[in-house]
């Protein structure tokens, strides 16, 4: 479209320049325009006006489209994503501790302190060939500027594309979506009361406690995400078939039959152990081309996520883009207080609170296959 606009502007300049040359020639010769010259000028002005109106209409349309896009983004409260995943690493805990604990750790932390830590992200570990250790590390993240948001969930995927004879009626495909309205949930927990002077005598205690609380927050978010996925109507089911390995492979087939590219598989550590031990057996080793890569933790070429959030005897095979994690732009809040309980101040005790706001979006229920690994 930009090329067309450039062509119209160029054409306007050309016809106006030609008309100007005709008018200037008559002026320099001290005479009026002839009938032919007047016709040339009138035609040039009319053409330039048409092109100008076209350009003006296009500018109006682009302005309205931009306003609508801005309104839609504002209503949904979504910030553009860049393919990153959520991370709860030591860097976040260190940042939180450093914002409250004075340099050198020689003084006690302030009686009431709050550190808002920017949410830590990491590139997709699957594409980097590293094992994914949590469900959160493989779920795309969307940040929202408001606690309420909405997204579109696909409910029907029926493609009827076919060869059509000349003049025949084209088939209609059905790709239905429904608008899902959701809101971010607060995920939080507190520490038990800790004597204030413990922090004075051991400065590393604050970072240790922050790290543990941050880890607990991650576990809770992961469990909530899986609960949302399991509670979504329309996800697929794969019954047990001969063995755990065969059941997992059939789960991938179910995804592929639905037209989805497998993104990852989620297993409990105990189930993954049984899979690896089975693949490391004498019979398996003697068989060429084992279907897994232990270094990058891939099975049948698909990344495997090992998580305690997954129940023993259950698996999930998820198609690329089937689910996503939602959070806000405020980050994770780490707060310390001596007055959260009635007698903490009098007993010289301190408690810590770690919290954030999160939700889970299931964009395509058919892109999730829940497998039964129990014979």
Structure notes:
It is built from nine helices and 19 strands. With 375 residues, it is of the alpha+beta class. The strands form four sheets. Strands 1, 3, 5, 8, 9, 16, 17 and 18 form an eight-stranded mixed β-sheet that branches. A seven-stranded mixed β-sheet has the order 10-19-15-11-14-13-12, with helices on one face. It is flat and about 105 Å long. The two termini are 60 Å apart. The model is unreliable at 67-78 and 100-111 (pLDDT under 50).
What is the topology?
Blueprint: H1 2-28, H2 35-76, E1 78-79, E2 85-87, H3 90-100, E3 113-117, E4 120-122, E5 141-144, E6 148-154, E7 177-183, E8 185-190, E9 194-195, H4 196-201, H5 204-230, E10 236-238, H6 244-257, E11 262-267, H7 269-279, H8 282-286, E12 292-293, E13 298-299, E14 302-306, E15 314-319, E16 323-328, E17 332-337, H9 344-347, E18 349-362, E19 368-372
Parallel strand pairs: 5-16, 10-19, 11-14
Antiparallel strand pairs: 1-5, 2-4, 3-17, 6-7, 8-18, 9-18, 11-15, 12-13, 13-14, 15-19, 16-18, 17-18
Helix pairs in contact: 1-2, 3-5
SSE class: alpha+beta
Average pLDDT metric: 80
Number of helices: 9
Beta percentage is 25-35%
CATH top-level class of the largest domain: Alpha Beta
CATH fold descriptor of the largest domain: Major capsid protein gp5 fold
Main sheet properties? 8 strands, mixed
Task: Please describe the structure with a list of short key phrases separated by commas or semicolons.
2 domains; 375 residues; alpha+beta; seven-stranded mixed β-sheet; Major capsid protein gp5 fold
């Amino acid at each position: 479209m930009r090329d067309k606009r450039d062509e119209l502007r160029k054409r306007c300049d050309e016809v106006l320049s030609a008309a100007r040359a005709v008018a200037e020639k008559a002026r320099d010769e001290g005479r009026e325009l002839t009938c032919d010259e007047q016709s040339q000028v009138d035609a040039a002005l009319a053409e330039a006006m048409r092109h100008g109106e076209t350009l003006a209409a296009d500018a109006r349309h682009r302005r309205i489209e931009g306003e609508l896009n801005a309104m839609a983004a504002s209503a949904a409260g979504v910030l553009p994503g860049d393919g990153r995943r959520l991370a709860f690493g030591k860097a976040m805990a260190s940042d939180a501790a450093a914002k409250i604990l004075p340099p050198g750790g020689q003084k006690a932390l302030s009686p009431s302190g709050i550190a808002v830590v920017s949410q830590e992200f990491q590139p997709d570990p699957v594409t980097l060939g590293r094992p994914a250790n949590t469900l959160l590390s493989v779920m795309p993240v969307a940040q929202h500027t408001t606690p309420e948001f909405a997204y579109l969930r696909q409910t029907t995927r029926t493609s009827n594309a076919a060869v059509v004879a000349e003049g025949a009626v084209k088939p209609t495909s059905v790709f239905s979506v429904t608008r899902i309205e959701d809101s971010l949930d607060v995920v939080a927990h507190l520490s038990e009361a800790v004597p204030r002077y413990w922090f004075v005598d051991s400065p590393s205690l604050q970072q240790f406690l922050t790290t543990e609380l941050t880890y607990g927050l991650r576990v809770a978010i992961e469990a909530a995400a899986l609960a949302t996925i399991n509670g979504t109507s329309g996800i697929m089911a794969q019954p047990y078939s001969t063995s755990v390995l065969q059941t997992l492979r059939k789960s991938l087939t179910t995804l592929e039959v639905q037209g989805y590219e497998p993104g990852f598989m989620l297993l409990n550590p105990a189930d993954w152990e049984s899979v690896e031990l089975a693949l490391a057996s004498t019979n398996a080793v003697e068989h060429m081309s084992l279907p897994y890569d232990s270094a990058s933790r891939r099975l049948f070429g698909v990344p495997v996520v090992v998580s305690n959030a997954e129940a023993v005897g259950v698996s999930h095979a998820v198609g690329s883009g089937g689910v996503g994690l939602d959070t806000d732009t405020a980050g994770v809040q780490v707060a310390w207080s001596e007055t959260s309980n009635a007698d903490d101040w009098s007993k010289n005790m301190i408690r810590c609170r770690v919290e954030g706001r999160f939700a889970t979006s299931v964009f395509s229920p058919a892109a999730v296959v829940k497998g039964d690994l129990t014979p």
